[in-house]
Amino acid sequence: MRWNLHEPCKRLYNRTFVQGEIVGYIGPNGAGKSTTIKCLTGILVPTAGDVRIGGFVPWKDRKLHVKRIGVVFGQRSQMQWDLPLIDSLEFMKDVYNIPKEIFKGNLEELTSTLGLKSFLNTPVRQLSLGQRMRGDLAASLLHSPEVLFLDEPTIGLDIVAKEELRHLSDLEALCQRIIVIDHGHVMFDGAIDQFNASYGGPRVLIVRLKDLSPVHLEGVDSVIQDGNQVRISLWSETDLPELMAQIMNSYPVADFALEEPSLEDSVRRIYQSLSKEV
Amino acid sequence: MWKNISGNAKIGLSLFLMYRMQVVMVVFDEGINFLVPICLWFGLYRGNPGLIVNGMNLQDLFTYTFLTLILDVISRTELTWILRRGIRSGDLAIEFLCPCPVPVSLISSDVGIVMVEIPSLLFIVLIATPFLRPVAPASVWSFVGFIFSAIMAMILKRIIAILLGTIAFWTLEGGGLIMSASLIIDVLSGGLLPLAFYPHAFRDVLSVLPFQGLVNLPIEIYLGKVQGNQMWLSLLGQGVWTLVFVGIAALVWRTATKRFVVQGG
């Protein structure tokens, strides 16, 4: 499924978003992420500033605006607690006035994509958090919205469920741009690899030796040896193939692995630096 | 908009029917509700069934009780408390994602529950009628006027309920205030005691206020105590008050939602 904006979207902290863009919005607790989303969805009225999404001001043109957006709040569900999931999804048909055939098609596609079939007729109160989240995702997409807001959709999910949802939505892979905020200030706005390069830690080469030979290397950031396991932090300009050749020729290598800085690591680093500034 | 309203009503009805014991207990509750005032009036008028006080005899009072119960069933609403809970918990935020005015979706969900009250209505009519022997409407026009007035009472009660619920936008915890306001409205509407028993001066003031339209006015129309041109004028007044309250509620809602803070993040 592709969800496209029909026209240039919104400014945020003097930001503009364009059609088809997928933006990750990151910040520590209390940074203002959820508040921003609530302003963008028309739930809250800001005390100052302007937001336009597709020409609509969310809190003034709320009824028209919400027809074009889908929202998932990780901490609040749109599902009716006591009713089967399918009842809540059919309610969306009435709420958004979705034509019958389109609703049927979207429901089939979402049931298949999100794996809802086994619990469509189960009351929402009996679903696991992961199942409820998938139900909320389906509800937010049934009316084919032009803009989709996801506010902590994986909160509370265990690692397996989180990975399943990531696989389904593949956010980190799809997210072309991230914005990092802290208490209303934009700390970073750019591509993920740029973010990792700026804030991410070094790549780490992990080598397991067959014996306890001490390892000495040049042209790397640091070498930490613990028994037969060696962690080698690399500079960005380190020639990895050359280094590997040097290690393989000089030491009895049993195994090796390469750790790339993840987005989570980069985020952790920036949060830590922000908390130090405070 | 109509699909939105009917969708909300369907959901309200489904939610209420999920717990069958709740439906049974509502019917049982009505039984208690009609027994207490009946005992009171019978006790007060005992020994003199022909006694007339402020134009009301025992049969009028039994009929008043009967119709109060019917009006209570169709006007009953939890909107005030639903709104208060939604504001306190922050869950009201989800209602703002619906492409429909939030009060309209709340009211339409509430109206869905009214349909479940039909067994209660049947209970009152079938079981209470042989005991209370309510009098027939004074005339066909009295009955027509009663129906119009009852429908407006149903709408006005819900508008007032929404208004009371918006208190929570300012106070967050307005439970005490809401209960006090509800009790006062019960008194002013004639829900606790027919307005005919209030002092004259107080009755004159109440006759121009909107609250008598919730209970006393529809029943007085039914009993023929307000008829002819006076009835149509009273209905017009009730309609005007309903529209005024709709306007007030819209204004208050617009102001209140600007202050909305989603509790709990």
Mean pLDDT figure of chain B: 86
Taken from the alpha-carbon principal axes, the silhouette of chain A is elongated
According to DSSP, the number of beta strands of chain A is 9
The ordered H/E elements of chain B are HHHHHHHHHHHHH
- The coarse overall form of chain B would be globular
Major sheet: arrangement of strands of chain A: 7-8-6-9
> In sequence order, what are the helices and strands of chain A, one letter per element?
EHHEHHHEHHEEHEEEHEH
Please, how many helices of chain B? 13
- Summarize the amount of helix of chain A as a percent range: 25-40%
Quaternary state of this entry equals heterodimer
Question: What's the layout of helices and strands?
Answer:
The complex is a heterodimer of chains A (278) and B (265).
Chain A: E1 23-26, H1 33-40, H2 62-66, E2 69-73, H3 85-95, H4 100-114, H5 129-141, E3 147-151, H6 159-169, H7 171-174, E4 177-182, E5 185-191, H8 192-199, E6 204-209, E7 222-226, E8 229-233, H9 240-250, E9 253-259, H10 263-277
Parallel strand pairs in A: 1-4, 2-3
Antiparallel strand pairs in A: 4-5, 6-8, 6-9, 7-8
Chain B: H1 2-17, H2 20-45, H3 58-75, H4 79-89, H5 92-95, H6 102-116, H7 118-132, H8 140-165, H9 167-171, H10 175-189, H11 200-208, H12 216-222, H13 229-258
Structural description of this entry:
Chain A is built from 10 helices and 9 strands. Chain A has about 280 residues and is an alpha/beta fold. With about 260 residues, chain B is an all-alpha fold. Chain B has one domain (about 1-255). Chain B has 13 helices and no strands. Chain B has helices at about 1-15, 20-45, 60-75, 80-90, 90-95, 100-115, 120-130, 140-165, 165-170, 175-190, 200-210, 215-220, 230-260. The mean pLDDT of chain B is about 85. The interface of A and B includes residues 34, 66, 75, 76 and 83 of A.
